[in-house]
Amino acid sequence: MRKLALSDEILMKVEKPARYIGNEVNSVMKDPGKVDVRFAMCFPDVYEIGMSHLGIQIIYDMLNQFEDVWCERVYSPWVDLDAIMRKEQIPLFALESQQPIKQFDFLGITLQYEMCYTNILQVLDLSGIPLLAKDRTEDDPIVIGGGPCTYNPEPICDFFDLFYIGEGETQYRELIDLYKDAKEKNLGRAWFLEKAAKIPGIYVPSLYEVTYKEDGTIKERKTLTVDAPEMIMKEMVTDVSDTYYPMKPVVPFIKVTQDRVVLEIQRGCIRGCRFCQAGQLYRPVRERNLEFLKKYAIAMLENTGHEEISLSSLSSSDYSQLPELIDFLIEECSRRKINISLPSLRIDAFSLDVMNKVQDVKKSSLTFAPEAGSQRLRNVINKGLTEEVILNGAKLAFEGGWTRVKLYFMLGLPFETEEDIRGIGELSNKIAATFFETVPKEKRNGKVQIVASTSFFIPKPFTPFQWAPQCRKEEFLDKAYLTRKSITEQLNQKSIKYNWHEADVSVLEGIMARGDRKINQVILRAYKMGCMYDAWSEYYKNDVWMQAFEECSVDPDFYTVRERSEDETFPWDFIDCGVTKSFLLREWHRAKEETVTPNCRMQCQGCGAARFGTGVCLEEREG
Amino acid sequence: MKVRIKFSKEGPVKFIGHLDIMRYFQKAIRRADIDIAYSMGFNPHQIMSFASPLSVGHESSGEYFDIELNSMTDTEDIKNRLNEVMTDGIKIIKVAALDEGEGNAMASVAAADYLVRFSDKVTLPDDFKEKLTDYYEQEHIYVTKKTKKSEKEIDLKEGIYKLQVREDGVFMQLDAGSGSNLKPGFVLEHFFETIGVELPEFPFRIRRLETYRKTKKGKLMPLIS
Ligand code: SF4
């Protein structure tokens, strides 16, 4: 039987010990003596969050298909175990072999949100790996960063040996072969990193130097070796129906956030909402073919035993063969008593019909994401959802028996006025009114309940809003109060509930998102002062963070409230995500003009992503 | 038709709690493609009943649950198919068809056998065996049991059916009926308290060996006999 890294006494003391024992169904065991490369794949948050992430499952499965590689998993130990490991000096270990991470060849960390940055340091620290890449020796694993946050890797570049920019399916084989070569010939870490920098998509931050102007913006980026490329082009899978996808995803013992089979139907999004980073990063849209999806859906259900399957994509309604796919799933799943969950569907007659078939209308709620309260502001953000469409959808839904509606909005969008904010209350009210108009008294089964939620807008790199100033905390809160006030003034206010997000953490997220290399020291400082699990509001310590900024003499406002000039060099400009800066700038201008831009299927906008020669860019358009 | 399944749980999987073990078997039954019956309604669930929850950290070689089937091959086939999809540490030992009208696993439980071993941190007195025998041979062993709401005096002796010091630990057969269930750790903690020995944290390693039902004549029989 496997020996665990933690003693029974420790495991009995901590919350949910099954987070740390490995051995889950479909986890991969190999003989360490028979592989050349040991790879630890990390999601720097607690197990239940990390295990719910599809990207890791894809890479885990792919790397383990390589016979010479054993890929294992590691997550952030929860705060209770973290304290014990520090006190008793127990090194962080991988779940499968239960062996220390420090002995591995690679530690790959996926960066899905900025608020996990201190947890990167936690993982390195508990592993006994020097926090700064420059202090690492031949005894340390190569630390790789991947995931959406690597599209601006600069705020965390001191902690990583290299970043893999883009989709993971394409370049790992080459990277591993290079590593094996270096290891065999004893060429050392520096040699490996220099050569790795020439692999497409690989960014080795130590090979570059950045200088700044007096005003704090970037003056120049210099490469320190002749070979290091000046621009890094994102990696992308061109044929998403002929690539790695797990047939046998790992099945956790404990309940995790995503406790179901996840079927990724497409990558990318045709819509081009101006606030959305994913919508730009993953261009162009690439659909997986129906046969591929059918085959994987069945295999994954059979191999996991999950009782639910969920479709995943940025906008499932845009998948061109959705009706065929859903018919297939409904048939297969009703026979097998499997639930189908369909997030990100646009509400219309088709989707209501589908939802009526797959869920309990009484228990489920409808979700609309207008994102902005007025049509004017929706035009600014290029969210092509009109009030008419929303009210029609709601009407149809109320007729179908639904009574609960969730609405998502953002506050603090560029060019927002008080009028737009009041629109949130007004729109919520109109939806409630639609219920009373649509459903006669005697047919009402329960009250109508509208839940409006707002989050604070954070400008992200590689979006048309990357030039935009972000609100201060006080402005955010004023906007939330105004929203609340406008809701309480509505006729149907009793049917409307309002939730809003915390403001402190949105400000910090904004700093990280558009930060430069100067942020590294602040993160390090905050971590040393005890910050960790910043994504968990109960552990987020805003005062400590602010103190860290002060002690490092870094001004948070520089990263947030400032409007960036159109000719400013951004920290992330050396990355090419396919979409050009000139396209983004054009979109920024159109936002100011409140002009809507058609989506990729209606008319190509020449965003730059056609270079990849795949997906929607190759589709024939009507007219 | 109903079948009763006996399984063991050993090694690291002992840290998986009862609810998660239920979820684990729901998924395993689907992986093994067993034709289990589902409840009606919008979110149908498998018809399944577990005998008695096992505490986190305990091992067992006598766990049971019942499932209802729509159709069935034979018990050996069900056992093999389930074993093919088990994870390390969980093993199906036996599968038996239940007679029509037999009570479900949970309602049937009357008693269980346990083997308790001590962690290295426990220092046993030299005359441990005598002391424990004396303890057990008392006519009554009164303790006050505190629940969330009340305190009540119970006689432990009534619930301890057997107690023996063995080479590898202490063997006990205890009442496991719903409502009168006695925990092995509770009994031993009380014993150490009466002899004035202080225990460290997590002093015991506990293994359930078997779970019993009571026959009409009052005899204890394993849930699958
Ligand atoms: S090149 Fe045209 S079709 Fe392709 S992603 Fe860009 S806008 Fe869409």
State the main characteristics.
heterodimer, A: 623 residues, alpha/beta, Rossmann fold, Transcription Regulator spoIIAA, six-stranded mixed beta sheet, four-stranded parallel beta sheet, 19 helices, 19 strands, 14% strand, B: 225 residues, alpha+beta, Alpha-Beta Plaits, 2 domains, nine-stranded mixed beta sheet, two-stranded antiparallel ribbon, 6 helices, 11 strands, binds iron/sulfur cluster
Question: Care to describe what's here?
Answer:
- The complex is a heterodimer of chains A (623) and B (225).
- Chain A has three domains: 8-233, Cobalamin-binding domain (Rossmann fold, 3-Layer(aba) Sandwich); 260-355 and 593-623, 2-Layer Sandwich (Transcription Regulator spoIIAA); 363-518 and 554-578, Transcription Regulator spoIIAA, CATH 3.30.750.200.
- The N and C termini of chain A lie far apart (66 Å).
- In chain A, helix 5 (117-127) packs across helix 17.
- By secondary structure, chain A is an alpha/beta fold.
- Chain A contains 19 helices and 19 strands.
- In chain A, strand 17 (449-456), helix 15 (473-488) and strand 18 (496-500) form a beta-alpha-beta unit.
- The model of chain A has no long low-confidence stretch (mean pLDDT 95).
- Chain A has a six-stranded mixed sheet with strand order 2-1-3-4-5-6. In chain A, strands 15-16-17-18 form a four-stranded parallel sheet, with helices on one face. Chain A has a three-stranded parallel sheet with strand order 10-13-14, covered by helices on one side.
- In chain B, strands 1, 2, 3, 4, 5, 8, 9, 10 and 11 form a nine-stranded mixed sheet that branches. Chain B has a two-stranded antiparallel ribbon with strand order 6-7.
- Chain B folds into two domains: 2-107, 2-Layer Sandwich (Alpha-Beta Plaits), CATH 3.30.70; 108-222.
- Chain B is of the alpha+beta class and 225 residues long.
- Chain B is elongated, with a radius of gyration of 19 Å.
- The interface between A and B is medium-sized, with 32 and 31 residues.
- The site of iron/sulfur cluster has 11 residues of chain A, from loops.
- Iron/sulfur cluster is lined by residues 283-284, 600, 604-607, 609-610, 616-617 of chain A.
